[in-house]
Every structure is written in C-alpha cells, then in structure tokens.
Amino acid sequence: MSLDIASLGSQIGTTILTSLKSDSGKVRAMALAEGDKLALALTQIAGLLAERQIDGEEAALLVRVQKDASEVVLASLAEISRVAASKAVLLGLQGVAGVVDAASGVPVLAPLFATATALATAPATT
C-alpha cells in the first residue's frame, strides 16, 4: 500500500478548513447576536433599577435569568460547533475515500459513508 501522506493530509486539511470556515460564520453571528441581547437586557435591568421600578433583589434575579438564558444559547452553539466539526471531518475523509480504498485494496472509508448515508436517509421512528 502506497499513499502520499503529505498530499492526502493537505487535501483533507483543506476540505476541513473550508467546511469549518463556512460553518463558523453561523456560530459567530449567533454568538454576537446573543451578546447584543444580553447587553440590551442588562441595560434595561439597570434602567429599571435606577428608576426604582425594581429593587436590588429583583434586579439580581433578572440578571440571573438572563445569564441562564445566554448560557443555554451558548451551549447550543457548542453543539453546533460539534456538528460542524463532524461534518468537516466527514467531508475531508469523503474527498480521499477513493484514493485510500484503492491504495489499501480494501474498503477502509467507503463503509463509513454507506453508514452515514443510511442513517441520514432512514425514516424517523417515533
């Protein structure tokens, strides 16, 4: 079995990088939007406190609620990042599957994509 590791690595790395750049924009936009929402909420809470429409205890509770909401959103971004990473690696491997499988003489990567395709096209179960 003969594989050009440098070429293979470069091809996989380039595909992964391209995919991650594409998906990272979504994560970045969502994180910035969440920061804006949190800043607005904190400004409003501070304003209500300054106008004595709420007391310190109520302000602290509202800040805690906003903090918790932001943590939930950011946790979902972490999941999006995990999905983006998985997709990027799969795309990278898919791009070299033919070369690797041909060089090895046995289907090393092809079964991975057959399984992924089967899972993606399987009907949902309830």
The total strand number stands at 0
Radius of gyration: 23 Å
Number of helices: 3
Strand-residue fraction?
under 5%
Q: What is the approximate shape?
A: elongated
* DSSP helix fraction: over 70%
The domain tally reads 1
Please mark out the parts with pLDDT under 50 across 5 or more consecutive residues, or reply none: none
Query: What is the quaternary state of this protein?
Result: single chain
Taking the alpha carbons of the first and last residues, their distance comes to: 45 Å
Structural class: mainly alpha
Query: How do the helices and strands follow one another from N- to C-terminus?
Result: HHH
Average pLDDT level: 82
The major β-sheet equals: none
Q: Which features would summarize this protein structure in a list?
A:
3 helices, 85% helix, 0% strand, elongated
